[in-house]
Write a structure and sequence with these properties.
Elements (H helix, E strand, L loop, with lengths): L1 H8 L5 H17 L10 E2 L4 E3 L5 E10 L10 H13 L15 E10 L8 E8 L10 E8 L5 E8 L5 E4 L5 E4 L4 E10 L13 E5 L4 H14 L4 E3 L4 E4 L5 H12 L2 E2 L7 E5 L4 E4 L8 E4 L3 E7 L2 E3 L10 E3 L2 E7 L4 E4 L5 H10 L4 H14 L5 E4 L1
Parallel strand pairs: 15-23
Antiparallel strand pairs: 1-14, 2-11, 3-4, 3-6, 4-5, 5-10, 6-7, 7-10, 8-9, 11-13, 12-13, 15-16, 17-22, 18-21, 19-20
Helix pairs in contact: 2-6
Length: 384
């Protein structure tokens, strides 16, 4: 009602009164406390994961051949890799011979080995150039072993690369590059050779870990599990629950499937404000509240205008042309406004009110930092 009345009489008010109208509208918006946030139940599988049931990273060093003159040329490690490859097929390069391989490139092969992957299964791999190769388009990866963190071979990779980038050059030295031509993928390019032991079917206790530490959420998950399977779960810390599951892979899998589909209402996250001081981006969660505070913020703008002029000498005066400096200095300070916030006002409403008053992103960040220092903003403030 107040906003509609102010809008109706705004054309007949002086500029200072119109500024007061905007301030009053902002204060009216801030007078209403934020309604309690609606918390929705989530599945257990969306809150955490079982310990040991995870992907494992594999890496390998290989060679891509069949390139159209866009390889590594005569780099030493490419020559060594080619000697190893040729030796596996019974061809020995003479000592001291540099094949100058422009059609080959040394690469690093990376892959994520999924949990419970079994020998014979196929997984995708990513191939990245290691040296000075200009493009991997049209190349084929020669058989490459993929190693885990323990130094054991878990997969073998080979196949033709699919490269989304393109790089071309002209005779005059001009170049054109689209996306990244030195990285490619091979769909189903690796075959699993060894499974990773997880202890899923043999361990006495199976542990479940929250994605984010929270004692209240861990307690609620424990209670939800014990309501359906009494005595199954116990809390070890703010992240981990210990589960006593029946022996045997089949019985455990059925019980874990039921646990993952249980609905649990997680605890409200801690009050946190994320501020990017470079871009002025402010991210606020629903738990942030303001204590009583009054804000007065002014902005001083200093402007220096330089208008140099060329002065010509008079006729037959034997003078010289000179540059005369003409500087104009000005300083302007925006009119300050004092805004008072009642207890319980949400920070989101504060940001909306300051935006209505024309506060710039950099000024907004300064105000939030000052509120934190004054103790009126009870939240963790992260500045990136």
């Amino acid at each position: 009602m107040l906003n509609s009345m102010l809008q109706a009489i705004a054309p007949f008010l002086p500029s200072r009164l119109r500024e007061g109208r905007r301030l009053a509208a902002a204060l009216c918006a801030l007078a209403v406390a934020l309604a309690p946030a609606v918390v929705h139940a989530e599945r257990v599988r969306d809150l955490g994961t079982f310990q040991g049931v995870r992907t494992n990273q594999l890496t390998g060093y290989g060679l891509v051949v069949g390139l159209n003159g866009t390889g590594d040329d005569s780099l030493e490690y490419v020559t060594q890799a080619m000697r190893g490859v040729s030796g596996r097929v019974g061809v020995q390069l003479p000592p001291g011979v540099n094949p100058a391989l422009k059609n080959a490139a040394a690469v690093i092969v990376t892959v994520d080995l999924p949990a419970f992957a079994k020998p014979g299964q196929r997984i995708d791999v990513t191939v990245s150039a290691l040296g000075k190769a200009k493009s991997l388009r049209g190349g084929a990866l020669i058989m490459t072993p993929l190693y885990g963190a323990d130094g054991q071979i878990y997969a073998m990779s080979q196949g033709n690369l699919a490269v989304g980038g393109l790089g071309i050059s002209g005779a005059d030295g001009s170049k054109l590059t689209v996306n990244i031509p030195t990285v490619g993928r091979i769909a189903d390019g690796a075959s699993v050779e060894r499974a990773v032991a997880t202890g899923f079917d043999s361990a006495d206790l199976l542990r479940w870990n929250l994605f984010q530490s929270d004692f209240l959420t861990a307690t609620r998950v424990r209670d939800a599990i014990n309501r359906r399977w009494p005595g199954t779960a116990s809390v070890e810390d703010g992240v981990t629950l210990a589960l006593r599951l029946p022996a045997g892979a089949d019985a455990r899998a059925a019980m874990i499937a039921g646990i993952e589909m249980l609905d649990v209402t997680p605890a409200e996250t801690a009050a946190r404000v994320i501020v990017n001081s470079r871009t002025g981006t402010v991210v606020i969660n629903s738990a942030v509240r303001l204590y009583p505070a009054a804000i007065s913020h002014g902005k001083l703008t200093v402007r220096v205008d330089e208008s140099p002029k060329v002065v010509q000498p008079g006729p037959l005066s034997r003078g010289q042309t000179q540059v005369q400096q003409d500087s104009t200095l000005s300083a302007e300070e925006a009119g300050d406004s004092v805004v008072h916030f009642k207890p319980g006002a949400s920070l989101a409403r504060l940001v909306d009110a300051l935006n209505l008053l024309g506060t710039s992103p950099s000024d907004l960040v300064a105000i939030l930092e000052a509120l934190k220092q004054a103790g009126a903003l009870k939240a963790e403030m992260v500045v990136i």
